Amino acid sequence: MTPQRPEPVVPPPPTATYRLQLQPDFPFAAAARTVPYLAALGVSHLHLSPILEAVPGSTHGYDVVDHGSVRAELGGEEGLRALSDTARAAGLGLVVDIVPNHIAASPRHNRALWEVLREGPHSPYARWFDIDWEAGGGKVLLPVLGGPVGGELAHLRVEDGELRYFDHAFPLREGTGELPLDRLLDAQWYRPAWWRLARTEINYRRFFTISDLIAVRIEDPEVFDATHATVLRLLREGVVEGLRVDHPDGLADPGAYLRRLHEATGGRWTVVEKILADGERLPAAWQVAGTTGYDALRHVDGVLADDSGSGDLLGQYRRFAAPPADRGGDWGATLRRAAYKVVTHELAAEIDRLTREATALCAADPALRDHAPWALRAALRELLVRLEVYRPYAAGGADPGTVLTAEAAADAKAVFAVREEGGAVDAVRGLVLGGAGSAGGAGYEGGLGGADGVGGVGGTGGAGGLSGTGVLSGTRGLSGAGGVSGVGAVEAARSAFRARFAQTAAALRAKSLEDTAFYRHAPLLSAAEVGGSPDRPAVDVAEFHAYCARVQRDWPYSGTVMTTHDTKRSADVRAGVSVLSQAPARWAALLAEVTRRTEAGGRRAPDPQLAWAAWQTAVGFAPAALSAGATGATTAGTTTTGATTAGAASGTDADAEAGAASGTDADAEAGAASGTGATSETGATAATGPTTETGPTTDADAVSGTGATGSGSGSGSAGPYAQRLRGALLKHVREAGLHTNWTEPDEAYEQAVAAFLEAGPCGPPLHAVTDFAAELAPHVRANVLGGALLHLTMPGVPDLYQGTEREYHALVDPDNRHRVGFDPALLERLDGPREGWGLSDEKLAVTAAALRLRARRPELFGGAGTYEPLPAVGSKAGHCLAHRRSGAVVVAVTRLSLRLADAGGWGDTALPLGGDGWRDLLVPGREFSGDARVAELFAELPVVLLERV
């Protein structure tokens, strides 16, 4: 009798993870050298950025090209296994970032895509991709040319049996290699095209608006198996112990995917990069440990911000910058206008496809007929821009009717000049919710993409499958798709439409919120962060405690973060900016002073919104300027090299290919529905830019090549600080899209930006900023240490981004991908004398103490632990934020320390510790009991971590 194979042992959840950004100059071997330091620091797992084969040279790894192999540039599977062995010997495990939503649209490196381009919809790989073959006339649009094809023919050539265009290579359809070039191009299953056509002509689903990343139909079981086999094998073999899932909102049915992943991994610890809107909850049915932690970031930042001061800053911002309400003056109006811009420009092709699908569905149902395509397009647009979350879900989340509300529908119908034509809104909303019409009304249970929601009936997407357009285009009916006819075809088409609507909603929310509105509305930049709420920067203490209690109850192993590879400003930069909410009058005085000094030097900001954002950024980034001036090297935390990607401003971490482009803002963003339904075509989503002698340039190339990046040598004493600030601010104005953007950069404006930065935040007035920052340093210190300690002790599993255990001042990517140092001597110093310690040393001490406590007593912080608010008593009780973990640990931090100082200090405020003795883990030798005076608790540090003796 064959013995039964034992079930694999599922490792326990991490107590804390540490994110390492792998890249060719920081491979697995380099990561292995960090293990002694990180083990001594107290984390339980290394959190690795994507490890699978990516586009050569990629510095982020999200542009995967081969799911079957571990990236050779990092050391391959042998290097990964060696890292795992080294980590395991030190008591550490590995957590890896996986990318189920998309892969790189780079045919020469991506075998699956190469085969689809060579064989067309009949390729066995066609089911991998969500390609709308009919919309492309049977061809995949490839927006890779630097100009219209007629002007690029001289650069297109057949060589070694391939079609070549500069560094691009494409396969040839069998039997076409000897054709003349014009006929050869016509004979292919793809169409090389001018990059500007992507916005309106793209016919494959992308990651957001990035044409260099093609989405994968992971809902297909065959595709899931093929793309997850290597990672699942590494999990089974114990090389890897947990997963971080990138961008689940791009999937047809995130819940079904996560259920399948949970079953395939045997329940390994998994967190998802789900961005929750203010007040939104993670779908309860998702089989994951929780989110990656942007919701925690929002609550920690918020509880350390001052509500009344934030309101004062908003008033000052409106007076100083005088932005129109919908271009930065009012958050709601600004977000709505940004959404109109994205939905009519960058996502125009996606809206076209949804319109065709809605038109076909309405034509198939007598109850829904006679809605003109232009009206359905307008209805789609108006409903999408009114969604206040990233997307609705099939099950487990909020009732879809509360997400796509009746009030929003009524508001959307109001834009129609003819009231009856507004009925298109009801038709579209009904299709999205899943209960409209008479032909096979599915009800909601199957809505928004079931487990097999897209392509689950017809088989392959594009080869007659339901995720292609055989059942979803025109008005020619919904029968005959993939062998499915009648009600079955209608149901499959409805499910596909619901899923695609949700996927488009997620892309729209991300692009309009994170990549546009956050850069337009800037009263307090620290609140314009992923997961943040710029209209409500502050979170009160009761709300913070309620959030923590909910996480402890429902998601005790959810991730928590303060800085990531995607944050626009590191936690320490945000801490410096956030203090301004406690000092609006002092900020106003500084702004007036630096404006006067800059203008006295003969320069003015090209617009006041930029000036406001630039000076706030400089305040938060000032410690980096001081470090650069003192050392002459770029200093971001514990950097080991002065090198930095100075002017290369790119989009999100996943789009260093610079596809994050916005169209112009001079469009019909008001959203008024018209009989034509036409939209402006002045904007484009770029995958590549103008052609140079070596080929099309990317947006990142364009950034580093314009005068807007300055001289590259820095100015004054700032050194690399100036280069880094210029790169971030140039990205700021291009993302905002008010005066320049990625695809139509205004060179004169960008040069004016560079000149202003050179004379202002990177010039002599910088000294006024650093003096101001020095005055506020004690209060920035309170925010930095308070945020760090809350992060490390609140419910959930803390993830530390590389270098953030010490002071870490970094701006938006790629600035935040600096290499950092891992010197064990830094940890050894914690046991020595503390004379001469700075904030970096204090933050390291706080971090190490909290991490080591979590490692030593994991039961206090995991699912079996408890979280209990611990209110202070006395006249200044509101400035002490404290909680107790499992009755054995007390954490207290100082809130709004500048307001506290202005009010005269702690006075009689006390913290009722209860019980007998409590040992201070941050200041050796101290013990407390009973009602401890808060002034004594915070005598040496603005935070305290106590363990019951």
What percentage of residues falls in helices of 4 or more residues? 25-40%
Largest sheet: 8 strands, parallel
Q: How many strand elements?
A: 28
Structural class: alpha/beta
Compute the CA-based radius of gyration: 28 Å
Task: Return residue spans where pLDDT drops below 50 for at least 5 consecutive residues.
Answer: 436-484, 630-718
Description of the structure:
The chain is an alpha/beta fold and 949 residues long. The protein contains 30 helices and 28 strands. The longest helix is centred in the middle third of the chain and has 34 residues, at 487-520. The chain is globular and about 85 Å long. The N and C termini lie far apart (55 Å). Residues 436-484 and 630-718 have low confidence and may be disordered.
